[in-house]
Amino acid sequence: MDAFTDRPFSGNPAGVLLLDAFPDDHWLQKVAAEVNLSETAFAHPLPPGGEADWALRWFTPVTEVDMCGHATLATAHVLRASGRATGTVRFAARCGVLTTTAAEDGTITMDFPTSSLTPIEPPAGLAEALGAEVVSVHDTAAHIGDLLVELRDERTVRALTPDLPALAALSERGVIATAAAEDPSRGHDFVSRCFFPRVGIDEDPVTGSAHTALAPFWSARIGRTELTGLQGGARTGVVRTALRGDRTLLTGQAVTVIEGDLRL
């Protein structure tokens, strides 16, 4: 599935595998490495009457992650397209219960925990690793563990060619580079790019989890709780954000590109 887009070959690709139950972790990791996308989501239905409808886990090609937006969006899209779920779906994940709600217009809204932001001094070597002047740096909270790095302008973000091994040494997971939109009339309020070489993802095209930090960061500066973010380098996608205190709503679309059976 391509997530946070309404057309194939854009947005962020994610693998989605629906199961009857989770096999052992080694098997899940091997499948994610074989799919070789930034994340592969694995889901199975839960018994009725509980706090969630489906169990959900996400793996990069090299490790499991605590929270992933685009693969959750992709999973909700698959459940709706296959007729396995309609309306609101509750997922039990490592970061708690996440809900997705499908609308008639094809969009899906996800309810995620808002990331807290702690301003910090730029780590030594950060500007050199990015190849750009750093305006401010914030550390994000649990479930993410990224550095949110504000750069001078949109053009700087779009032109980044970072030193990925150097970036991998600077944060727990990765770096979110962001700047205000050069021209908000083009339909987005801010831009971002995300680099996660430490977990096997050089650049993630469109990162839902990063927007749980980008939403409060830019809402405080722009003065609105509902914003639109444009993320990506070669591939781009759009994330609509709505800040609701300790929760952030992320809205986007997804399209199916490849469908098949895993023969193991």
TrEMBL record:
GO terms for cellular component: cytoplasm. InterPro entries: Phenazine_PhzF-like. GO terms for molecular function: isomerase activity. The active site is at E39. Keywords: Isomerase. The keyword Transmembrane does not apply. Pfam families: PhzC-PhzF (PF02567). Belongs to the PhzF family. This is Oxidoreductase. It comes from Streptomyces thermolilacinus SPC6.
